[in-house]
Amino acid sequence: MWISSRFYVILLLLNLDATCSEPFEAHLRGPGFVMEPPGRVEFSNSSGGWLDCSASGSPQPTVDWVHADGSAVTEIHGVRRVLRNGTLVLMPFAAAAYHQDVHNTIYRCIASNSVGRIVSRDVQVRAVVAQAYKVDVEVLSAARGCTAILRCVVPTFVKELVRVVSWVHEPAIYIYPSLQGDGKFHLLPTGELLIHNLQESDESQSFRCRSMHRLTRQVVVSSPTRLRINSHRGIISPSVVEHTAHVQVSQDEGAVLLCVAQGCPSPEYSWFTHNGAGPLPVLSGPRVRLLGPILAIEAVTGEDSGVYKCTAGNVGGEASAELRLTVATPIQVEISPNVLSVHMGGTAEFRCLVTSNGSPVGMQNILWYKDGRQLPSSGRVEDTLVVPRVSRENRGMYQCVVRRPEGDTFQATAELQLGDAPPVLLYSFIEQTLQPGPAVSLKCSAAGNPTPQISWTLDGFPLPSNGRFMIGQYITVHGDVISHVNISHVMVEDGGEYACNAENRAGRVQHAARLNIYGLPYIRLIPKVTAVSGETLNLKCPVAGYPIEEIHWERGGRELPDDIRQRVQPDGSLTISPVQKNSDSGVYTCWARNKQGHSARRSGEVTVIVPPSIEPFAFQEGLAEGMRTRTVCGVSRGDPPLKLIWLKDGDPLPDLLGANVTMLDQYSSLLSIPSLSATHSGEYTCVAKNPAAEIKYTALLQVKVPPRWIVEPVDANVERNRHIMLHCQAQGVPTPSIVWKKATGSKSGEYEEVRERPFTKLLGNGSLLLQHVKEDREGFYLCQANNGIGTGIGKVIQLKVNSSPYFSSTSRSVMVKKGDTALLQCAVSGDKPINIVWMRSGKNTLNPSTNYKISVKQEATPDGVSAELQIRTVDATDSGPYFCRASNLYGNDQQLVQLQVQEPPLPPSVLEAAMISSRSVNIKWQPKTLGTGDVTKYIVEFREADHSLPPALFVDQWQQIEVKDPPHFNAMIENLKPATRYAFRVIAEGSAGRSAPSQELIVRTEPQRPAGPPLSLSARPLSSTELLISWVAPLPELRHGDIQGYNVGYKLSSSGNTAYNFTSVSGDGDGGNGELLLSGLAKFARYTVVVQAFNQVGPGPLSEPAAAQTMEDVPSRPPEDVRCAALSSQSLQVSWQPPPIYHTNGLLQGYKLIFEPIIDDIQPSKDEVESRKTTALTMVLTGLRKYTNYSIQVLAHTRMGDGVVSKPLFCHSEEDVPEAPADIKVVSSSSQSLYISWLPPNEPNGVITKYSLYTRVVNGREELNNEKRSLPSQQAYYEAKGLHPHMEYQFWVTASTRVGEGKSSRVSSQITTNRIPARIISFGGPVVRPWRSTVTLPCTAVGKPKREWFKSDVALRQGGLHNSQLLDSGDLIISSLQLADGGNYSCQVDNGIGTDRLTHTLMVQVPPTAPVLYVTSATSSSILMHWKCGFTGNAPITGYTLFYRRANGNTDEMQLSRHASSHELKGLMCGSTYQIHLSAQNKVGTSPTSTILHVRTQGQSPGHPASTALLAPNSTSLLVRLHSWPDNGCPLLYFVLQYRAVTEDPDAEWVLVSNALKPQRRIVVNNLQPSTLYQLRMEAHNVAGISQAEFNFVTLTKDGDPPPPEIMHRGRGGQTTVIFANINLLIPTIAAVSGMFCTIIMIIVCYRHKQSQIQKESLENRANSEAAQRERYYATIHKVSMQNNDKIPETSEDISPYATFQLSEAGGNMSQPHHGGPANTLLHSFMYHERALAEGCSSPPPAASKNRRRHSRKTEPESEESESDQDQLTSSRTESSNQHEGKIKHSIIYHGAQSSTSSDLSPMSEQKSLPRRGRSRYHHQQYQFSTNTTPRHHNSNKMNNNTTSNTNTTATNTTATPSTSSNSNKILSPRGGNLKSISSTFKSQDSIQCHIPTLVKSPSISTQQQKQFHKQQLQNSSNNSSQHSSSNPNSSSLKQQQPLLITPKLHQLEANGQELLGLDGIGNSPLVACMPPSSQFRPIPHKSIMPAHEPPHHHNHNQQSHPHQQQQQQQHQQQHPGTLLNPSTAMLSSKFFTAPTLPK
User: What is 1112-1136 written as a DSSP string?
Assistant: First the structure.
């Protein structure tokens, strides 16, 4: 059976890729815009507008218009029209016909064809209704020589549509815009006119501005304006009056940046760009031009965009402005690919490519559209659109729309085509094997594009046609085709290979499977098979039956294959390739056989045919319409039957074509066209086919057609200034070109081609668009169409311009005086006839028949009509606008004529200061809008506004200036005074007179820099690093403002630098004096100082320099290059160089050499530090220790003291011969031997090199033998053997160094004997060892004795000490040494013959005990402390470590010298508490630290100022003088300030001014209400604490008057609240009051108890009284835990006589500690200064206080059994409370001719800190009480009133004035040697004070008066003691009221080996003993220091029994005014000065 080869060819197509198949709609193309409408179209209602839109595609798309909502745009007759070419025309319309939905809306153009649909960008259409407008000129005048600016002011409603085209310089000079003017005139691109170099002649010239409406092309000219020149000739700083803030241009265009500034002189311009890291200047270049106010950039690029800054500057200053340039770079949008063919089910992907100049553009706003509808964003990723699973609905047009932030849009289109999809089998059948009989169904399902067709075959042939076979097929909704074959009753012959074939244009797919039916072989009938020559033939045998064993092929009786081209396949089919017609045609037989041998045969015929081949053919060139043509299609080969047919453009030839087809023969066909036309053009295809194949050949026929009209031009009319479109369209082949020409003369004259230019557009479709048509466009126009075929066609049309009335100018102004005749004229142009009507205010038509005042005239002119309106006897009511309205057939227009009737002007209004400078004010004003008079000039009057003078004096004080340029309404008033208030007013003057003055304007001119320097500059030194600078403010007339402060400059006079170092001092603004303390200066250096004042403007001139030199100081550097050389064993030479000159700090007085030997600690510890002075640079030290290492230091000293000591230099003296050995022993060790031992020399004076042992044998007095033996230096013993018995041997030893042999030891002799007594050959003596070590005490003996060891006469046994061991050799070993192990260890030997004893003194070195630390004084920044070393631990102290820290701070430590006993801590915080403790070190270790002292530096929290000094309210502000706030010694850090109005609401909120206000002179609180009561709350902060205060103040009225009395009364109700607002003051006040009550109660109880004990105490003897006194005094001291083995005082003698006791406040209960700290030692001490300060001593003290001489009388007796002295308790408590707890400074009380209180600081601080301003500065010798108690808050003012009446013991400092006595220059000093001790302290919980009576001589007391007073005093004292046997010396009220007056004569006494200092007068004056500080205090209750011959006195201290004595002493004091002793120590003075002997 046979199969056609054609099917095989189709099968081969299946291998082609489906995506490569050609689309079946290849001739279709989607629409694309050829001309897309612009995004914005604006037009005038008079011209109309149009929107062009054209597209291309296949088929040709249709163009439609839609609204933004998608609705179609329809035509509206006379309003809107859509042309056939797609143009949307919006016709001209009247203003009343404006419709927003037509003329101000959004349109879109849509192009669509069968492929798809695209939509254009949004087109915003805006129609502008032409409105009349006028432009004005604004003149920014300038002074002569400067630049004036003229602005063309356009109304805002047309500003964006109007531009300035030119300016007219009257009469007819036109000035056009340019980038660079002609030097005089410059019209900027923005319309401003610059007139440079103004002269007087320019003032008379006039200028007009010409503007044009860019839509209507209407030109509007302003009225002439005259230029005005200011009379001001001063300097005006520039100000930018115009600049283009934002310029936006497209790429490659030119950009102009404009920045216009006005100033005088004319400013210079600089341009900068801010596009980089910083501003860069713009430089001129090829593209950039700098033209003053213009920056021009040509052909801008993206890099030019950014921010630019222009700066205009002159000598008066500069101004700047920022401009932004935005360059819109064009972008190109493209979709890749633009045509995409995708098979069904595939994925389509479009990418939107956005580029600019070929470079990709970043992220853009991209929208995707499909067929005109926006797609959701879910299907796209950034710029990519993905369409998955493409179906038929997805094909169409896609658009990518890119919208930029600027608003413009760009788009691109792409087409998605559904490609031909080859069939795909979705379902197929399987192979089956069946028995005959059942029904069978075979099914196939396929999909493809186009929908495939399914056919069925059986073994390659159609299915049998019988009733058992049924074929069904249908198509689903998805386009899938389903086909099936049903066999109702299957038989054997139905078996075979069934195949379903799905085929469409894109390909073919086949599925085959066998249906096996059991049965015998059967071969079905095979029809005739036709094969194609050259192809492959596949012959299949249609065999049925199952199973089949084999299949064979035969031809001509021969089994195949028999040729190489033949092949039998495994399935039995025969393949022949290629087929040849001659050899392969014939009959083929196939037979089949099964296994049983049954077979079947069948034959079929195969015919081979050849496919056709067409010869090429073509049409001739140059065929035109009317010609004939023919061509022949011939088949060169191919078997018949052949069929030839013709196609045109792929379709059969239509009958209307008129073409003839003739078959010339069987193989040729003739195509002929007798008459060609345009319709014959196209592609002609010849198709030849036979059963083998179908072949095509195509040729192109093009018929050239001459042009002909599609739209023929016609005549047209157009109104003036409107647009017109002249349409002209033609067609032809090829497409003709359209050319427009205009006749230069008549219709038959010459024509000139019309070219594209402004307002003339040649459209692509051939239409001519004329915009803003004027009369010059009228004439004949020719449209020609030509395509080279024939002569072309043309048409002449006529364009007529119909002119509506128009005026040369839109408005005029006529000014007429009141009562004259007004003449209003207007000239109108246009087509006649023209009708003119005059109207008033645009409404009322003026008619002469109804108004007798008017008359109208009218006459014709060549261009139109001239009209005139006359108004007689005008008045103010006739003023206003008049309109000349003209109309004709084509339109109407009107002109405004403004009539102004002049009247006297009204006064100007809104007077204000436009610019205020120091010496000029620019005043501007506004004219009254109701005034119609012509103002010819303005008169500005001004005067100084001095409120102190009455207004009547101001009549003739006004000064005037005239302003002759009214349009500017401003004036510059010069030559004013700086910082002065002026009153200004303006008067307008017109032709009718002057107006009333305007309201006055009060202006204060700006301040200037001060013109005068400060006066009376002085500088004086205060210390070595401080200068006090003082000055007086400049003269008031030269201040030019409020002086805000001063700049103080200083420099070293010796330096070559001319520049000063400046520091600022704030001023008080009122011109007060100033001073400044310059600190941190170079010492002993001369400085030059200048001062300049400054205000808010700047600094003034410098003052004349003043010079001053700082004081001398000690050198700050040690001498340099210190060298040392040994001259001998006892002398050293030391040399050095002076310190650097800049560190000498004064005149060097000489040098001090400090040296000490470095010795071991075994020798006695004595301080051998020596010092020597010299003025030379070298010194020889003599008398030194031999061969000793010395530590040498050198310092330089000036008049002020010693400088810094140099680092220690160690130098060794040379060797010398040694001293004699210390000792020698000779003992008998046997009968013939002696044992000699010796000790090395105590002073070896070098390195011992050997010992020489001398031996001498003596027999009686005869020397028998002499021998010398040298022994090594390490050997200190020798045993002489072989001696003669009973002979005397003498021995002595010498030591030798390298210098020589030293002295010999003593001679020791011994006689040899047979009896050997016990002797010790070891040596005893001191043994020093450190603790925790081991020591061996030797006890080597002879005579084999018995040894015993003793410690302090106590025998030691083996094991008796836990750490000792006795060796057999007799040595005692003690390990782990402790301090208790020290002592005397004795070794005793005894053997019955003799006995011997040796003693070792063991000293164990341990760490030292804690030193006793006490503070002697404290200043605001330093603490001076002393200490006493305790137990040194048997080793020299090597140094001290001082630990200190501020409360809540970190601990610092400092290493101090071992020689130091005092130290001053400097640089501390003011008013702060410090914890201080000290430790000592020796070679063994460090001691425990001393008791921690809590010491507070001086200074307290801020005080409280008086409200009158602090506050100065005004009407709306409050001046707060912050400098008046007292700082109490600690500088203020900041203030907290808040206020609130006093209202009924007590919870009103506070207004915070500042919570961190820095200290300054003053601050102003603004925004207050006049006449209002306010409450001010302030906090002042310093290091020491905070103080709060509240003040009430009332603001003044608006006029500055005092507030009403009722408000003042309310203000007095709430005075300053200080105490109760501050919790820090409230609590101590309550505590003090409570303590006072407790004290009174305790005194009463003690008094009653004492009365009952008086009789009993009088019977006791003196010894018992003394013992009781000792115990009672000691009972006041609490025994606390002592450290470091301090001895606790056991008796009253152990207490220092200078100790006073500080008890706790609460009623003297000593069981309660005063502080919670570990040891709050309250130490009152004195500080003495060695040198008296003579400066300032002659100044008188301040006035005395009135209450100083009042004394209270105390009458309370004291019992002996009370625990403490009551008066002493009161005194101590009062001192502590008043001096230390209260935050008041120590007072100095003068009890002489004058008494006063001063608040000076202590002497230590007085020399280091500057006294405040206003304080008298005295230099006193003071005795400073310092304390570290916790501060208490007291009001110093209140305490002063109570000082003398209640607590007359508060004076702590007493001023001493120099005396003329010989002893006056002898000053008490703790360091000088006269006074050994100044203070001491207890380690107790309560405070203990050491007081020394303050003894100061008054210059008013003579020596004789002092003698008499002391005698009287001693007598009174003895009388008192005789009346009472038992008394308390401190309870004497007399001593409190009349302290002693003592002449300070000094004596030195010796008591118990201690040096005492006494103070004595003449004769029998008492002495005062000052004990050295010690831990053992010895109070002296009943003993006084008296001379030896003075008998003791018994004291009676009953205060009530001696009123006469008190009166005597009071009188005496008044007669002899002297200096009071410190009242707190006066009681002590009585007992100190009456003791006859010193205590034991």
Answer: P---SS--EEEEEEEEETTEEEEEE
pLDDT band at 1616 (very low <50, low <70, confident <90, very high): very low
Distance CA 820, CA 873 (A): 5
**123 - beta bridge partners?**
107
* H/E run at residue 1496: strand 1493-1496
Give me the half-sphere count of Cα atoms (radius 13 Å) on the Cβ side of residue 740. Answer: 27
Single pTM value for the model: 0.41
Taking only the tens place, the pLDDT of each residue in 1547-1572 is 888 999 899 888 887 788 888 988 89
What gap in Å lies between CA 1423 and CA 1419, rounded to an integer? 6
Segment 498-541, tens digit of pLDDT? 999 999 888 899 999 999 999 999 999 988 888 999 899 999 89
Contact between 1462 and 1973 under an 8 Å Cβ cutoff? The reply is: no
> Rounded to whole angstroms, how far apart are CA atoms 1610 and 1607?
5
Between the alpha carbon of residue 1772 and those of residues 1696, 1766, 1889, 1891, the distances in Å are 17, 10, 8, 11
Higher pLDDT, residue 13 or 197: 197
β-sheet with 1106-1109: strand ranges across? 1061-1066, 1045-1052, 1086-1094, 1106-1109
Write the pLDDT tens digit of every residue in 601-625.
999 999 999 999 999 999 998 888 8
Cα torsion through 1984, 1990, 1996, 2001, rounded to 10: -130
pLDDT band at 906 (very low <50, low <70, confident <90, very high): confident
Per residue in 1011-1036, pLDDT (tens digit) is 999 999 999 999 999 999 999 999 88
470-478, Cβ contacts within 8 angstroms, sequence gap of 24 or more: 475/451, 478/447
H helix or E strand, kind and range, residue 751: strand 751-753
What average pLDDT does range 1741-1767 have in this prediction? 39
Buried residues in 518-541 as b, exposed as e (16+ CB within 10 A) = ebebbbbebeebbbbbebbbbbbb
Give the contacts of 98 (CB within 8 A, at least 6 positions apart): 45, 127, 129
Compute CA 255 distance to the chain's CA centroid, rounded to the nearest angstrom. 38
**β strands within 1391-1461, DSSP E:** 1395-1405, 1412-1418, 1423-1428, 1437-1446, 1452-1456
Look up residue 572 and give its amino acid.
Answer: G
- Map residue 1409 onto helix, strand or coil: coil
Q: Alpha-carbon Rg of the chain, whole angstroms?
A: 66
- Measure the CA dihedral 1700/1704/1709/1711, to 10°: -90
- Residue 740 to residue 761: CA distance in whole angstroms: 11
Number of H helices, E strands in the chain: 14, 145
Contact status, residue 920 vs residue 931, Cβ threshold 8 Å: no
Select from 421, 454, 415 the least CA-distant residue to 345: 421
Peptide bond into 1858 cis (omega under 30): no
User: In terms of DSSP bridges, do strands 1395-1405 and 1325-1330 run parallel, antiparallel, or are they unpaired?
Assistant: parallel
Compute the mean pLDDT over every residue in the chain, rounded to the nearest whole number. 77
Q: Give the model confidence (pLDDT) of 85-142 as tens digits.
A: 889 999 999 888 888 888 989 999 999 998 899 999 889 999 988 888 889 988 887 7
Say if residue 590 is exposed, middle or buried (CB neighbours under 10 Å; 0-12, 13-18, 19+): buried
Per-residue DSSP letters for 1528-1542? TTS-EEEEEEEEEE-
Residue 554 and residue 559: Cα distance in Å, rounded? 4
Q: Which uninterrupted H or E stretch holds 584? A: helix 581-584
Peptide bond into 612 cis (omega under 30): no
Counting Cβ atoms within 10 Å, is residue 1941 exposed (0-12), middle (13-18) or buried (19+)?
buried
